[in-house]
Sequence to fold (133 residues):
Amino acid sequence: MKISKIDHIGIAVNSIENGKEFWTDILGLDFTGDETVETQKVKTAFFPVGESEVELLESTVPDGPISKFIEKKGEGIHHIAFRVENIETALAELKQKGIRLIDETPRLGAGGAKIAFLHPKATSGVLVELCER
Ligand code: ZN
Fold:
């Protein structure tokens, strides 16, 4: 498996509209627009930072995964995403090494990326996303 960089850091927020001010007005990052990913019940907004990005995640439904996360832990860092060259190869390799996966096959994420999550039980509690663009 080849990881090329940290693609983005996902942050769960109650509201992108309210949450984005810190990243744009205070830190001066560009807001490149938001996108709703219906299959994941989430609205996302990306803020490029050099070679990586900050991704804000807002739930589109009261019982979505991001709502549940915020209910349990409050707003904050939700996941870290690594850019991989070939996500299928990476998943096969991890599976072979006995790593517990949330997604055995990639799904479609924001921006048309192929993404897959590893189980936090296998990663010292960090939700890790693999991402191929
Ligand atoms: Zn992500």
In short: The chain has one domain: 3-132.
